Amino acid sequence: MAEHSVVVVAKVATVISDYEVALNVGSESGVEIGDVAVLFREVVVEDPDSGEELGVVSYPKLQLRVNLVQDRFCTARIIDSAATSFVSSLLVASGSTRKKIASSGVRATADSVYVEIGEPAEVRRSAV
Questions:
Q1: Phi, psi at residue 118, to the nearest 5°?
Q2: 114 partner at 20 to 30 Å CA-CA among 31, 42, 76, 78?
């Protein structure tokens, strides 16, 4: 049987600390401890002449590991900043420079990644 990835679409519910967020999905959605969550930065592409929205481009920006699961939410801690693609972000060694989470009202630094409540995320795990 071929191996595939299970994906649960989520959003950031709250920023817990410099290294941890809560997501709005939990065991009721199939999330398990150890799953990998990726936060995304979305860029809206607009037509310069009409102003019409042409689409949205999503870039992975932060990779986390789920460390607590409740029925309707989970918490996840930073593994590393995301690379330029989701596949390559899974290959990033966890021993590289540690990023921090900056949220509303907190001044971002060179080692922080800005995270807002409601930002899109995906929780993934490999399944057979």
A1: 95, -5
A2: 31
Q: Quote the CA–CA distance of 59 and 39 in Å, as a whole number.
A: 8
SS3 at position 88: helix
What pTM value is reported for the model? 0.75
pLDDT, block means (10 residues), the chain with 128 residues: 76 94 96 95 94 94 95 93 45 51 68 88 79
Dihedral in degrees, nearest 10, Cα atoms 84, 86, 88, 92:
100
Instruction: Return the pLDDT at 81.
Output: 52
**Exposed / middle / buried, residue 41 (Cβ in 10 Å: 0-12, 13-18, 19+):** middle
The residue count for the chain: 128
DSSP string computed for 92-115: S-TTSPPPEEE-TTS---TTEEE-
Among 23, 55, 56, 21, smallest CA distance to 42 is for 56
Amino acid symbol at 101: I
**Residue type at position 61:** K
CB 97 within 8 A of CB 108: no
pLDDT of residue 95: 41
